[in-house]
Amino acid sequence: MDKYFEWTNQIPWLNYELAGNFVSRWLVAAAVTLLVSLILRITIALLNQRIQRFTSATATGWDDGIAETLQATKGWFLLLLAIYAGSLVLELPVRVNELVQTMAVLALLLQAALWGSRLLKFSIEHYMKSRRETDPALTTTISALSFVGTLILWSVVLLLALDNIGVDVTALIAGLGVGGIAVALAAQNILGDLFASLSIILDKPFVLGDFIIVGDQMGTVEKVGLKTTRIQALSGEQLIFANTDLLQSRIRNFKRMQERRVVFEVGVLYETPQSRLKAIPQMIREIIESQENTRFDRAHFSKFGDFSLNFESVYYVLSADYNVYMDVQQGINLALFEKFAEEDIEFAYPTQKLFLQRVAPKELPYD
Predict the structure, then answer these.
(1) How far from the centroid of its chain's Cα atoms is residue 49's Cα?
(2) CA R_g for the chain
(3) Interval 39-78: pLDDT, tens
(4) 3-state helix, strand, coil in the chain (%, to 5)
(5) What is the pLDDT of residue 138?
(6) What mean pLDDT is predicted for residues 265-280?
(7) Contact 247, 196 (CB under 8 A)
(8) Average pLDDT of the segment spanning 21-34
């Protein structure tokens, strides 16, 4: 040791011993720490510059992901690495040396978790942007599974960190398993909503942007959360459903509708001549077929009503848009009103007939 530091004999105070090491060794350790910290920071900065130039010249997203990951590098991590490198110069007690090594490993694990979280988040966001319009169901699934992936990542890092500080991870996991059963029994409703959320995500009865009806409530799906699903109602307010209650209800998803089947009736007076009654189904057919985005199915004289002769017609609107359906039905109603006026056919409305009968006066016995 003295031969290695012969030059220190010229400066007496460098040979003073401090915590088991000469002052000269402490100075060398500090210099190594400073040098390693400087090298690491310069390396990270140069890498960021190179990657930024590379990303601006390419259209791929993976280089952007690498740049995002490098930006998650923390200053305290670089400092701890530099301190660990400086400590290698010193002759430290076994326990102190183990403590320094443990701190370096924990810093590395924590930094790795931050890198992994940033890369996972970037990958999910990039993938969702590319598929949001073409496959909204998949983006809903990815959004929920990202939480699970992040949870698994941090759980693994936590277990590795506990193992490095001497905790018996096997016994801990066994204890958590027993405690988990108790927690599950105490939080059945929350867990039920959680599993219902996974069922919605995997089975996809609806996705973000779908217009659904649940009971007497209707609106557009805004968010599928771990416990609740949020729907923007037509009247403007936000409806919040527990996922369990939602799956136990009958859900009508109008976004999945390819075309709309429409059944409507029209009634005419009983006084309508038979020849005109026979012509009404053909009139209705021609009117429906003259409208855009329609497919005629049938039109029949269906029944004798209380005050009208009823015709039932069925057609399809070749669009799921409710406004398109209403425009088509309005066009049919106006054309039907005009056609009936031309043919002198009157629409029926609630009427009653009162029949009066003249009765001869009854003879009395005393007459």
Answers:
(1) 35
(2) 40
(3) 888 888 887 777 777 666 565 566 667 777 777 788 888 8
(4) 60, 15, 25
(5) 57
(6) 93
(7) yes
(8) 76
**Alpha helix (H) residue ranges in 165-206:** 169-186, 188-203
> Which of 14-23, 27-36, 270-279, 353-362 has maximum average pLDDT?
270-279
- Go through the chain and tell me how many residues it has: 367
Residue 82 makes CB contacts below 8 A (sequence gap 6+) with 32, 33, 34, 36, 37, 40
pLDDT in tens, 110-149: 888 888 888 887 777 776 676 666 655 555 556 666 777 7
Rounded CA separation 309/297 (Å) = 20
Question: Whole-angstrom distance between the N-terminal and C-terminal Cα of the chain?
Answer: 158
Q: Give the containing element (helix H, strand E) for 109.
A: helix 94-131
State the sign of the Cα–Cα–Cα–Cα dihedral 239, 244, 249, 251: positive
Q: Determine the Cα–Cα distance for residues 143 and 128; give it in Å rounded to an integer.
A: 8
List, as one string, the DSSP characters of 209-276.
Answer: T-EEEETTEEEEEEEE-SSEEEEEETTSPEEEEEHHHHHTS-EEEGGG-SSEEEEEEEEE-TTS-HHH
What angle is formed at CA 14 by the lines to CA 8 and CA 20, rounded to 5 degrees? 115
